[in-house]
Amino acid sequence: MIVRSIGSAWRRAAALLVLLILMLLPIAAALAQTAVPAPAAPAAATAPPPPACDAKTLENCTPNSGDTAWMLTSVALVLMMTIPGLGLFYGGMVRKKNVGDTVMTSFAITCLVTVLWAILNYSTAFRAGTPLIGGLDRAFLQNILSDIAKGIGNPNPLAPTIPETVYMCFQMTFAIITPALIAGAFAERMKFSAMLWFIGLWATFVYAPIAHWVWGPDGFLNSANDAAWVKVLDFAGGTVVHVNSGVAGLMACLMLGPRKDSGPAHNVVLTFIGASLLWVGWFGFNAGSATSAGMQAGMAMTVTQIATAVAALTWMFVEWAARGKPTVVGICTGAVAGLVAITPASGFVGPVGSMAIGVAAGVLCYWGAVTLKHMLGYDDALDAFGVHAVGGAAGAILTGVFAIEQYGGTPGLIEGNAGQVLNQVLGVGIVVVYDVVASLVILKLVDLVVGLRVDVEVERDGLDLALHGETVQ
Asked: Average of pLDDT values for 24-43?
């Protein structure tokens, strides 16, 4: 009996052991598969990464992320210069009954020029064509899109390390603010419809060609073009933006004639805010013109700050001596004069040169805005010619004096290259002559078709209510 009981126990134990083994086998198999994976299939050959975009690699390449980030920031800064910067700067200096029309002008120009830039003007300004005008390969921005999914693109050779879309937008902001500056000359008396026609035609037939001459890859004034007829140094727009807009503004105010009446700035705080936005935004304007986040951008930012401060103080002291009191409008206008004058020089001069340019801007632009205007009798309402044409021409010519080879690649007069001063004078002269003739032709055509000037009653009552049905309270 005892033997039979022991045998039954062993059988039960053996059965339990077998059952346990059967339960553990699947788990052991699973663990074995995890510990020893099946041999992997041979890996496919990894494609090499696309090359980085640079001056020698301009197709199917990867833009530089640092340069692109800086240029995206610069686009925003320069756009801020027009809306709201210039709108507030000009809006504070006109009379209250014309504030709405003044800020509306800046905003409408921003919209109009953006559309024209995308349709035609970017292509004719910044694509290769002839020494006088660019080609049409980017009309309607055709073929500008890159392969975003693969992170590759075909940049414009003028800005090889950033996407062409970013470069196009950056130059668009320049094309926007230049005609908007003109509005300071004809403020408080031009029809809104006439303004739109004039600005649209001027942006297409004056700004775009001159931008191509000075900055286009085959422009006949571009110092970077080996085949240029005259090698003009213009880092960020002394001729293209400031001389160009100032001269066109003078032609406009001469065609329109003086205002029937005028008055002091209605809100100096608006002018102060606008000038401050212009100053901050100008770092994108000048340092951004390096089209890269490097040493040249750093020096351009440095000299911009110095020249602006020096010019503002110079204007303040000159006005204080001449009129007995320093004014908010005066020091703000002096700062803008310094920004204007250092613009062409910002990529070519050093701190000492920027100080000299700042002093010259403060003195010469005060003379242009106060003495010259009264001497010749033209009504440049907000001193577009006195500040932008005079300051732009002074800065452009002084660039030829203070240019330092180690900063911008070209020596100026102080380093023994007197010929560069001649090049700068010729560049300013060519831009002025073309601008005078083309602007007068456009103004005359617009006058014949829609008329340039508002009626006497509209001017007396204010442009805001008559042209826009709104008033500023």
From this structure: 47
